[in-house]
Specification:
It is a single chain. With 444 residues, the chain is of the alpha+beta class. It has helices at residues 52-61, 91-104, 145-157, 161-176, 215-223, 236-246, 292-316, 361-376, 383-387, 401-415; strands at 17-22, 28-33, 36-40, 43-48, 63-69, 76-87, 115-127, 180-186, 192-199, 209-211, 227-229, 264-272, 275-284, 338-344, 349-352, 355-358, 380-382, 419-423, 428-433, 436-441. It has a 7-stranded antiparallel sheet with strand order 2-1-5-6-7-4-3. The longest helix has 25 residues, at 292-316.
Length: 444
């Protein structure tokens, strides 16, 4: 029997598998399967979503035969299976369900997973092709251990949250060749992810939002399961799902950065101490850009980044006895005219003139800083005093403020003025304003 680990690429789901069963009278039935998931060298899980006849046959004799196809080489293998059990909950079910949710976008629930059916593999053998195709060029399989270890060391040396984000994306580009990636964090509503750092796109898209359940990012965040697609060309619905994810461009939103035609995508939830801290997303214009081994390496990086972000947040609030020195010299404030900030209390949205700026905690935070500036001329603030400000409606758990400050600072920098936030010594920030702001509250 051929070990299943030797044909791992055949389980990527690029080419639909075929399942054959027989009824009690020996009458065969053949159907397509959306996904065959490898569990170990002797077990696979089949996605059970609409296989009524197949389910009846398996219930009658417990046997099935599946053919899997390597999407890159075209190699075919037959698996002889014996049914063991069905799972309707748990990590395996959630993982298969998340993957199917990507395929199921805009299909009215047709492919919704009913169960993950576990089978024991009695035999695995190659199927000689009657008309062999020209062998595909073998993909390079570089050793990922060294770049993973190197990026891990770089993260260990990063001193603050902002450095952690930049080090991660720069390291992925330089050490792994991943040129298009971003980090998102959950907003205060717990219903959407917000882009806080990107690399490799024409625009940064800081502040762009993805609702839980929308596209590969939203599904990975909602299910807390890694979702990896190795060939989006399997169906245009994948691309349409991606476009719908990226195209939430109505009033009061920022377009999510995205490739025009991605073929591979991976979204990895970043979990620390049981909480969703963020999400690492990468995409490529190449097929098979993210394989199983890439997922393993990126999972390690994502887990370390999640834990480091939590630690950096706690470290930033510790009292610092040394002299406070700005990390960036304050720029000279130029005289400019009046500009208006429109604030919507309903969701904390803030507009600069007619342009949407940010919403939620970052929106309320900037409104508070500007109000203090107008009232007293105050320009420097401590994180601790910000946390005590009730009008900001900060979450009880304090690990959100630092990422919100970074998000707001980068969004203002991308906007290019007239407001800037400068990161200073530990636990402090400086507000710089060109001109005379006016805040208009709009109850709507």
């Amino acid at each position: 029997m051929i070990p299943l680990a030797h044909l791992r690429d055949s389980f990527e789901g690029v080419i639909p598998s075929v399942i054959a069963t027989t009824d009690a009278d020996g009458l065969p039935n053949v159907s397509y399967l959306s996904h065959v998931h490898i569990i170990d060298d002797t077990h696979v899980a089949l996605s059970n979503q609409f296989l009524s006849k197949t389910a009846v046959n398996v219930a009658a004799n417990g046997l099935a035969t599946v053919m899997v196809v390597d999407g890159l080489t075209g190699a075919q293998h037959i698996l002889d299976l014996t049914f063991e059990r069905s799972e309707t909950e748990g990590p395996l079910f959630e993982r298969l369900s998340a993957h199917l949710s990507i395929l199921e976008q805009n299909m009215a629930g047709i492919m919704r997973l009913k169960a993950a059916d576990i089978y024991r593999v009695r035999d695995c053998r190659a199927v000689p092709a009657p008309h062999p195709l020209e062998a595909a060029t073998a993909l390079k399989a570089p050793d990922l251990m060294e770049p993973t270890a190197q990026l891990s060391r770089m993260l260990a040396e990063a001193g603050d949250t902002e450095s952690l984000l930049d080090t991660t994306l720069d390291g992925l580009a330089r050490l792994f060749g991943i040129r298009h990636a971003m980090v998102l964090v959950p907003d205060d509503s717990g219903k959407r992810m917000i882009t806080i750092a990107t690399i490799g796109y024409e625009r940064f898209g800081i502040g762009a939002e993805v609702d839980f359940g929308d596209g590969i990012i939203g599904i990975a965040a909602a299910t807390r399961q890694t979702v990896r697609i190795t060939d989006l060309s399997r169906g245009r619905r994948y691309v349409e799902a991606v476009r719908s994810m990226a195209g939430m461009e109505g009033p009061g939103s920022i377009p999510l950065p995205s490739l025009a035609l991605p073929f591979s995508q991976i979204a990895l939830p970043m979990i620390a101490q049981g909480r969703l801290v963020g999400l690492l997303f990468a995409e490529s214009e190449a097929r098979f850009a993210f394989r199983h081994r890439d997922e393993q390496a990126l999972s390690l990086i994502g887990a370390q980044l999640a834990q480091a972000l939590r630690l950096a947040e706690q470290d930033r609030d510790r009292p610092h006895a040394g002299e406070i020195v700005p990390l960036h010299p304050p720029e000279r404030v130029a005289t400019a005219g009046l500009f208006q900030l429109r604030f919507y209390p309903r969701d904390g949205s803030l507009f600069l003139g007619d342009d949407y700026l940010i919403r939620g905690v970052p929106g309320r935070l900037l409104k508070h800083l500007i109000e203090e500036y107008l009232k007293s001329g105050k320009q420097e603030f401590r994180n601790r005093e910000i946390r005590r400000e009730a009008s900001l409606m900060l979450p009880d758990i304090k690990d959100n403020l630092e990422t919100r400050l970074i998000l707001l600072r980068r969004r203002l920098a991308e906007k290019g003025g007239p407001i800037r936030l400068i990161s200073m010594e530990r636990g402090r920030l400086r507000l710089e304003v060109d001109g005379q702001p006016e805040i208009v509250i709009i109850e709507a």
